[in-house]
Amino acid sequence: MCVYTNIFQGSYLDGLRSHLGGLTQRVKSWYWGRPLSMQRLPMDQNGSSLEQSQDQPPHIVPDHRGNLHITVKKSKPILGIAIEGGANTKHPLPRIINIHEHGAAYEAGGLEVGQLILEVDGNKVEGLHHQDVARLIAECFAARDKNDITFLVVEAKKSNLEPKPTALIFLEA
C-alpha cells in the first residue's frame, strides 16, 4: 500500500487538482518506463540552476551525520510538496515524491524528490503515521509566528533505514 499526501496551504480544490495532476504524471511516467526526474530546476549549459542564479541560493546546512537542514521561506501561499510513507506504511520515513513548481519549496530550492524527512521545525517524524506527518508539515507551514519552515532530510541512498535493492542470481542446472 502506498500512501502519499500533497502538502498544500491553499484551497482544498487546488490541492486536489494538483494531487490528481501529480498522480497522472506519475502514472504516465511509470507506464512509459521513464522515472520521474530527480532534477527540480532547469539547468543552463554550464549545469547551474537557472532560477538560483537569479535569486539567493537555498539555505542548506549539513550536519556531522550527512543530514541537511533546509530552510524554506514561506514566500508562496502553498508549500507544494507531496510525500509518501510513514510508520503505518511500508516506508517508515516520509519521502518527498513531488515538488510543485508553484510552491514555496520549489522557489526556495534545496528540497529534492527522493529525500527522506527526519524532522520538521525540530519535530522528529520517525514513528509518526503518514497523516500525522502531513498534518505536522501543514501546521508548521501555516504557523504565522515564523517566516520559514525547516526540514532535516537525508538522501534515501545514504539512509540505512530504508530497504536496499537486492540482486537476484539465476543458476542453470
Write a brief structural summary.
This protein has 173 residues and is α+β, with helices and mostly antiparallel strands. It has helices at 12-31, 50-54, 104-108, 130-142; strands at residues 4-7, 59-62, 68-73, 81-84, 95-99, 115-120, 123-124, 148-155.
Produce the secondary structure layout:
Elements: E1 4-7, H1 12-31, H2 50-54, E2 59-62, E3 68-73, E4 81-84, E5 95-99, H3 104-108, E6 115-120, E7 123-124, H4 130-142, E8 148-155
Antiparallel strand pairs: 1-4, 2-3, 3-8, 4-5, 6-7, 6-8
Report on this model:
- The protein starts with a strand and ends in an 18-residue tail after the last strand.
- The chain has helices spanning 12-31, 50-54, 104-108, 130-142, and strands at residues 4-7, 59-62, 68-73, 81-84, 95-99, 115-120, 123-124, 148-155.
- The protein has 4 helices and 8 strands.
- It is α+β, with helices and mostly antiparallel strands.
- The strands form 2 sheets. The protein has a 5-stranded antiparallel sheet with strand order 2-3-8-6-7. A 3-stranded antiparallel sheet has the order 1-4-5, sandwiched between helices.
